[in-house]
Q: What sequence folds into this?
């Protein structure tokens, strides 16, 4: 699979990532899919709802979760996913992936990213080091559930 994304769309992801640094940004990619490519049509930046989801599920009390702040975790608000699905239906587009940023970390998926990934989506990650974008890579799960780098083609 190749992810086709244009310069404006990439800039919009970078902009969101720099804006919320040092927290993780996240968002939704709407687009089209054929056999070999996913083409981004719209980038939808969303809030990072990690804290809300933490309190909803009441897991903030455990020691293990103390370091799971918005600097290292993201949750796309369910209502935003719902709205993106609706918009996708209206425009005959699909959700083709979810992007997020890694503040001061490489653009490589974490084990947490792996645990929550679905094999039909692309997972672009933008690495933001000291407030500046340093790298942008996209990832997809292979048939063994291992993240593989996905080719990005600037369309
Ligand atoms: Zn991540």
A:
């Amino acid at each position: 699979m190749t992810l086709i994304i244009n310069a404006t769309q990439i800039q919009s992801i970078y902009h969101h990532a720099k804006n919320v640094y040092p927290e993780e940004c996240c968002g939704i990619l709407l687009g089209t899919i054929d056999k070999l490519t996913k083409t981004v049509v719209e980038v939808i930046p969303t809030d990072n709802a990690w804290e809300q989801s933490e309190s909803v599920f009441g897991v903030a009390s455990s020691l293990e979760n103390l370091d799971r702040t918005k600097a290292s975790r993201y949750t796309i608000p369910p209502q935003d996913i719902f709205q993106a699905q609706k918009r996708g239906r209206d425009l005959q587009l699909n959700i083709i992936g979810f992007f997020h940023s890694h503040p001061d970390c490489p653009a490589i998926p974490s084990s947490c990213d792996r645990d929550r990934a679905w094999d039909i989506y692309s997972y672009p990650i933008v690495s933001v080091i000291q407030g500046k974008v340093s790298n942008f890579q996209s990832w997809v799960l292979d048939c063994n559930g291992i993240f593989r780098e996905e080719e990005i083609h600037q369309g």
About this structure: Helices lie at 7-20, 50-57, 78-91, 111-115. Residues 100, 102, 109-110, 113, 125 surround zinc ion (CB under 6 Å).
